[in-house]
Design a protein that fits this description.
The chain is of the alpha/beta class. The protein is built from six helices and five strands. It has helices at residues 14-26, 42-54, 70-75, 95-102, 116-132, 136-159; strands at residues 4-8, 31-35, 59-65, 82-87, 111-112.
Length: 160
Amino acid sequence: MPRVVIFMGSASDEGTMRECSNLLNDLGVEHVFTISSAHRTPERTAKLVAEYEADGCQVFICAAGLAAHLAGAVAAKTVRPVLGVPLTGSPLGGMDALLSTVQMPPGFPVGTLALDKVGARNAAWLAAQILALHDEELAGRIREARAGFKDAVEKAAAAL
């Protein structure tokens, strides 16, 4: 049973969102990594949201560029948390995707992360933190990872 579903708007987003999937793997979070488009396949998107929710999905992560309506389309179909990763892909440098993801109507929020790979990684971290509210083992793995970050900074400072 996937606890997290990662939706990408197109196959070209895989390189960026692989960061999210890899981090969820590292944290031991079961997830699905798939493609669905708010515009090209709206019926598929709605069907997948319903199916994954029925299977126990607890958090949806959606990545899209340009108009970036994928996260909003998913938020319209579920009461589970939806995290949006805006992707660069236009002459506007991702600002269009950022605004499309963050500007949701009241009652249909999307937790919006940073652009591209940083956003992809932080979406995985935030999804894991949401799941860790009811999973102490996962919370422990997050704490261990953060301790590793601290150690890396201290080692780098000592090496100066």
